[in-house]
Amino acid sequence: MEEKISTTTLEEWLENVKPFAYDGQLADYIPALAKQDPEDLAVSIYYLDGDCVHAGDVESCFTLQSISKVIALALALIDNGEDYVFERVGMEPTGDPFHSIYRLEQHRPSKPLNPMINAGALAVSNMIHGQTPDEKVGRLLSFIHEMTDDHSIRFNSEVASSEFETAFLNRSLLYYLKQHKVVTGSVEETLDAYTKQCSVELNVRHLSKIGALFANEGRDLNSGRQIIPKHFARICKTFMVTCGMYDASGSFAIKVGIPAKSGVSGGVMGSLNGFGGIAVYGPALDSKGNSVVGLKLLEMLSNRYDLSIF
Ligand SMILES: NC(=O)CC[C@H](N)C(=O)O
């Protein structure tokens, strides 16, 4: 794509998709997320040459939720290598909701089908090196600081506690995984690290920069430093295509065709080789847990600028 998208165009498009926010619901199963403003909307595009255009409530911060699963996977691969990680977590999409438990019983030896569903992401969090949950989360935060070049990024402790206190299904998944030796150590400590990981808070500009770094084969856009090995960046982007939008990944691949990961806070991070990173925030979700406005905007951008990788 030669033509860059202008701020004015992005602003217009954001106005056009705004009404779709009323078709969605906030993720209130994590009580603190119900406090988000359903009308908050923002989009940011970070090109590989370092140019960034954005529109909407760019300073609005939101928590990563499931988008953190891609970043945690990159760190777990760096910490443990590919063989260790994929002995414990599979590579196949499920077609099930992200918190589904039922396929765990259908495979022997039992392991989560992929790192983008909660079962797989809990196992991945458990693999991140660190003696304590805070050490693991501290390492993940440093990794995010390196990727965004913003050392002020933290996790939101209210959102983390709110999820920790109500995450009975994630606890069940962890106990199951512990029984089958997919995870080690304390279930409560792994859940603590996972809920803090999901609560890392940033804005669309940060998120589009992370998407651009994945698109840039894991290299920092300014210094060219390899922050994620190219092969691991590729693994992460492939999971974004096959499982990044939960059980809507197939239709998203057809309609949009951009490797992307969503989270129940309403964020979506896209990563497009040869182009850069795209991030959208709109907290109203569809029935699968994807941002209604995010999907609509990405579909429009993809069609207009022919962005599909397929
Ligand atoms: N889909 C999501 O964003 C889910 C993340 C959330 N923290 C959970 O485990 O339920």
From TrEMBL:
InterPro entries: Beta-lactam/transpept-like (IPR012338), Glutaminase (IPR015868). It catalyses: L-glutamine + H2O = L-glutamate + NH4(+). Keywords: Acetylation, Hydrolase. The keyword Acetylation applies. Its EC number is 3.5.1.2. GO terms for molecular function: glutaminase activity. It comes from the Bacteria. It holds the Pfam family Glutaminase. Substrate binds at S66, N118, E163, N170, Y194, Y246, V264. The keyword tRNA-binding does not apply. Belongs to the glutaminase family. Homotetramer. PANTHER family: GLUTAMINASE. This is Glutaminase.
